[in-house]
Amino acid sequence: MLVPEILLVIRKRGNIRVLRQALEAHKLTCVEVSSKEALEGLLEKPLCPDLALVDVSGFGESIKSMCELLQQKEIPFIVLSAKGELSLSNQALYHGAASILEKPIIKPLLLKLIRRMVHAGAC
């Protein structure tokens, strides 16, 4: 079985580092983008990631179009959200998010959700 590739759509470098370490410790491969332009560039490539983790923090209203891009490419995605970002999280859910996890992220829960989505063939 191929190692699933997880796309991290995250603006804050520290959050990228923490999630990357947690995922790679569980034999998941990560690729990251921190802007809409970088996401567009990545999605132009023929091989797409199996699943995306989208942290809405720091993206503002551009999160809507980023979610739409993922949905157009049929890449399932999970939204990571702080308590004060309910509006952005709801927009992401409306635009195709499979699930929303509130920060601070419970890593075992995130890993279980990722494995379930990958195993179920959602990716």
Structure description:
The protein has helices at about 15-25, 35-45, 60-70, 85-95, 105-120; strands at about 5-10, 30-35, 50-55, 75-80, 100. Helix 3 links the parallel strand 3 and strand 4 (about 75-80). It is globular, with a radius of gyration of 13 Å. The chain has one domain (about 5-120): 3-Layer(aba) Sandwich (Rossmann fold), CATH 3.40.50. The model has no long low-confidence stretch (mean pLDDT about 90). Helix content is about 45%, strand content about 20%. The chain contains five helices and five strands, in the order βαβαβαβαβα. The longest helix has 13 residues, at about 105-120. It is an alpha/beta fold and about 120 residues long. It has a five-stranded parallel beta sheet, with helices on both faces. InterPro entries: CheY-like_superfamily, Sig_transdc_resp-reg_receiver. Keywords: Phosphoprotein. This is Response regulator receiver protein. Pfam families: Response_reg.
Give keywords.
5-stranded parallel sheet; Rossmann fold; 123 residues; alpha/beta
Summarize the entry for a quick read.
This protein has helices at 13-24, 36-43, 62-72, 86-94, 107-119; strands at 5-9, 29-33, 51-55, 77-81, 99-102. With 123 residues, it is α/β, with parallel strands linked by helices. Helix 2 (36-43) packs parallel to helix 3 (62-72).
The secondary-structure class comes to alpha/beta
Termini distance?
13 Å
What name is given to the CATH topology? Rossmann fold
Q: Major sheet: size, sense and barrel closure?
A: 5 strands, parallel
CATH class: Alpha Beta
- Write down the overall geometry: globular
Can you count the beta strands? Answer: 5
Strand order, largest beta sheet:
2-1-3-4-5
Report the CATH architecture. Answer: 3-Layer(aba) Sandwich
Summed up, the helix count is: 5
Rg of Cα set: 13 Å
| CATH level 4 superfamily | Response regulator
Strand content: 15-25%
- What value does the average pLDDT take? 89
Organism: Nitrosococcus oceani C-27
Domain Response regulatory: 5-118
Keywords: Phosphoprotein
Modified residues (4-aspartylphosphate): 55
